[in-house]
Each structure stands twice: as C-alpha cells, then as structure tokens.
TrEMBL record:
Keywords: ATP-binding, Chaperone, Hydrolase, Nucleotide-binding, Protease. InterPro entries: AAA+_ATPase (IPR003593), ATP-dep_Clp_protease_ClpX (IPR050052), ATPase_AAA_core (IPR003959), Clp_ATPase_C (IPR019489), Clp_protease_ATP-bd_su_ClpX (IPR004487), P-loop_NTPase (IPR027417). It comes from the Bacteria. Residues 120-344 form the AAA+ ATPase domain. This is ATP-dependent Clp protease ATP-binding subunit ClpX. It comes from Pectinatus haikarae. Gene3D superfamilies: 1.10.8.60, P-loop containing nucleotide triphosphate hydrolases.
Amino acid sequence: MAQNDLHHTCSFCKRNIKITNQYDLPIFDPQTGFAICKNCIKEIYQLISDNEEESAKVVRQKFINDLDAVLDKNKPHIIKNYLDEYIVNQDHAKKILSVAVYNHYKRMKCMDNGDNVEIEKSNVIMLGPSGCGKTALLSHLAKLLDIPFAVTDASSLTEAGFVGADVEVAVRNLYYAADKNIEKTEHGIIYLDEFDKIARKSGENNSITADPGHEGVQQALLKMLEGSVVEFTARGQRKHPEAPTTKVDTTNILFIVGGAFVGIDKLIEKRLKKDDSAIGFGAQVQNKNKEPKYDELIRKVTPEDLMKFGIIPEIIGRLPIICTLETLDENALLRILTEPKNAPVKQYEKLMSVDNVELDFTEEALRAVARKAIARKTGARSLKGILEDAMLDLMYELPKSKLHRKVVINADCIEKNEQPKIEILPDSSVEEKDNFAG
C-alpha cells in the first residue's frame, strides 16, 4: 500500500483514520470513496443493541400484562371441563395437567415481581398403557392453550454426532409452533412422546457398542429440562459453523413427557412383594387370585421404579410431577365410541349422511368393537380401525345410489363380518327405488 493510501476520512464522523489493518476501516468503497470506520460501527451496533433490549422489555411486559386475561380463561376447572368434552375417564390425569398448565401461567406472571422468591418449573412425566389417551389429552390441550405447544417424538432423537434428530429439534418445533416468535417460544410447552423408548438398557442387555438413542439422549436432555440456551439451525438445515442459528432459553419452557413404560408394573409389583415379604408361621399367605391389577400398581409408581426402568436419576429429579393414567375397560371404550365431540361413531354418522344414509349402531355392536380393542391390547387407538374394517364394503357400495336409506349395524357385523341390514326409507322416489333394485 502506498504512503498516501494509509489515511482516509470516515464518511460518518469525518475523522481522518490512519489505516494499519483492514479492521480500522471495515467498510470502504473505492469507486465512491464512501467509508465507515470501526468506531462508528461500534457505536451503531451499540445503539441497535440498546434498542433491541428496550423493545424486548416492552414485548415482555406486554406479554406479562396479557397474562391476566389468559389466566381467567385457563383456570384448572375450565381446562378440565374442556378436556372432558373429548377425553373419557382419566379424571386424575386431567386434574394434574390442568393444574400444571395453570401454574405454568402463574409462574410467568410472578417472574418480574422483584422479590427473592423464585418459582421452579414443575415438569410432568405421564405413565399409562398404550391407547389410554396420553397423546390425545395433550393434543386437545394444545388446541385450547394461548401459548405455543409442540409435540416431539422422543424415540426419533439421537445423541449428538449420530445420524438422526438432535434433542434441539424439540425446541425448534416449538419455535415454529410459535410462528418464529422467540418470546412466545420461551414460555411455551413441549411434549416429548414415547419417552420410555429412550430408557437406558438394563444391565443384562446392555450393549458394549454405542447407544445413540438411549442414555446419551437423556444426558443431552438434562440441561434443556432444567433451563439452558439452546442453539439450533433452521428446519432442514445441517449444523455447520457457517449456518445461521437461533438461540432460545428453555428456563421458562414447561416440559411434559409421556410413554407407555411397558413392564414397569412388573417392577412395581416386585418392589411391593419385597416390601411385604415375611417368613414364619405369622406370615400372610398371598392369594394368587388377588394379584394386583395394572391400575392399582401404576398408581404406586415411585422415582425408584423409574430408575430401575432405565430413566437416569438426574432426569427424574427434573420431572417432579408423576401423572398416571388408567387402563380403559369395556364401558370406557363404549363411551369413547359415542360420547366425545369427535367420537368415532359421530364421525361415521356424519360421513354417511353425505350419501343420504342414516347410520345406526346397536349397543351390542359397539360392545363387540370394545371387546375387539381390548383383545388387541391397543386401547382406544384401535377403535376406528375396527369400525373401518367392519364398514369397508358398506362404504364402497352405498354411494352407488342416492336413495334415503337406514343402515343398522349389529354385533354380528362386527364379530362375524355379516352384511348389515339396509332399509330404504319411504321418502325416496319410486324411480330411484327401481334403479336401486336394478
């Protein structure tokens, strides 16, 4: 560089800048002579940072002020009444979730009170058999809430460095559920489904090779559950040093995790038998017919049982609320078929009405559907599939005519695949009847 090129005037502050390296004058256009020195850039950056900080405070205060209206709309009894419209039974679980969500709102309200009382998060762990309504409860809760809510499948997560989704995906899903609003994201709720699938393997089955989908994932989730700044790239973008990232603080995000925890009832039963064991003439003899049922056992679950199942102690410490769900018997499944707003029977009645068909299920038919679901051991999630199998031929044939008809489905249609009774109602025209008969 020539001697006369070592000085230049900044277009902003008009100071004569001695140029010793490229950072003294980071912006310079040789064609126009426009230049900005590093001091001006520092000042501009500081102004922008201060403005963003002030704007964030205003947004935060508005968010907290709006919480009064949100709290009024989401009191525990209101949340439970809403869930009652869609979910049958599980009253205890509904109460726990309703209180947990309401307390989450209250915790946000109390954050800026200025006192020294810090309210800790009350993350929730849900246990219950397959098809008992865990995911359904949370999906309906998501529709009600005024804060962002995201469901992530924990079984798809892997330890950092392995092929698969990192744990940051859960926060990224919440970020997109909040329409890319970081303030809303930092006060949202994350539900990790299939959480039992990341339990570490028991001693006798432990692999000497790497375990990308189990204990490593739990270790990665630790800081996130407690509260840390999570950095993630845009959806579909791989992590690399040049990729732009978004940072979200998880301190105020409520985590709810759930899973079937298949086999945990055996661990609970084993612990209870060990506690009640006695030897001698005065010992009480256990009657085999009085074996404890699943519902009785799951209510007695303790953190120690979860540790034996394969959840690491540090994770359990960050999930203080244990919420258990009961199995669904025949009567409960019967109610699920008919009572909720989106009950399967109501859905099929509405579908068939489009083809001018009145659909009627006998109680015995619905009980047969419930019994099939119990036999499959898949709970409520198999109800619609059983109905679909039974009605496939019917839904194929009925649209061939526009006659007003009534279809009665009885138990034999479900159990023996017999054809249901189809009755042509009197308000159909004679011409249409002849066409239908032909």
